[in-house]
Amino acid sequence: MMGLDAMNISLTEVDVDMDQAEHRSPEIVAMNPLQTLPILKDKELILYDSHAITMYIASLYCEDTKLLPSNPASRALIDQLFHYDGGILYPHYRSCAYPILYENCRFVMPQQTKEVEYAYQELETLLKGRSWFSGTYMSLADIAIVATVSTLNVLVPVNKERYPVLFSWMFRMSQKPFYTTGNLKGLNEFTKRIDTGNVKDLQELKKSPRSSVTRRSTGGKLVDN
């Protein structure tokens, strides 16, 4: 969603209520046997990895070459960061969040905290001497990483004193309009789940489908199309 908003690209978005096991419906399983979200259906093509989805949409429709450069070297740097996000950061999120969300655990285990903080140190090192992870300009890699790090920050806060460069980057990302429209609502909902174990207003999630442009025009709130 942040990628779409950063690129100013619209498509029809349909919310799937995982609390009601809608992701296990025959229609979803037929599209994605892994039963994960998001899913992109473009005619006969079906993708179910957020990095692949973002890259596909950007390759076809994005006119901003800073978000997704066309030269092979710069594109490889973004691929490399995508792999770090999916292969390192996201597993840390799962190991921290799933016991709280699904196993009645009420805190992040010390070893998991240590591993997340080690990842923060790696990110701090990657950012040294540059404004953005991919170099001079913000790219889709920064958007992918902030999606995961902002969520991890709910579980293991990024210490401003220990990781000043990472903290500064997070603040700059949080000031982007796409962060508000594409990330903030879900982040607040996740925080509520971690704190209370439930969501107060499930009915709001049922208002679908909606369009990307409508979501952006309402500051990220879910509204009827």
Beta-strand percentage? Answer: under 5%
Strand order, main sheet: write it out.
1-4
Helix/strand/pairing class, anyone? Answer: mainly alpha
Number of beta strands: 4
Percent of residues in helices = 55-70%
Could you list the spans in which at least 5 consecutive residues all have pLDDT below 50?
198-202, 204-208
Order of helices and strands: HEHEEHHHHHHEH
Largest sheet, strands/sense/barrel = 2 strands, antiparallel
How many helical stretches?
9
What is the straight-line distance between the termini? Answer: 16 Å
Please write the CATH class name of the largest domain: Mainly Alpha
Instruction: Work out the count of structural domains.
Output: 2
Reported CATH architecture of the largest domain? Up-down Bundle
CATH fold node name of the largest domain: Glutathione S-transferase Yfyf (Class Pi), Chain A, domain 2
Cα-atom radius of gyration: 18 Å
Shape: globular
Family: Belongs to the GST superfamily.
Protein name: Glutathione S-transferase 1-like
Domain GST N-terminal: 1-65
Domain GST C-terminal: 71-198
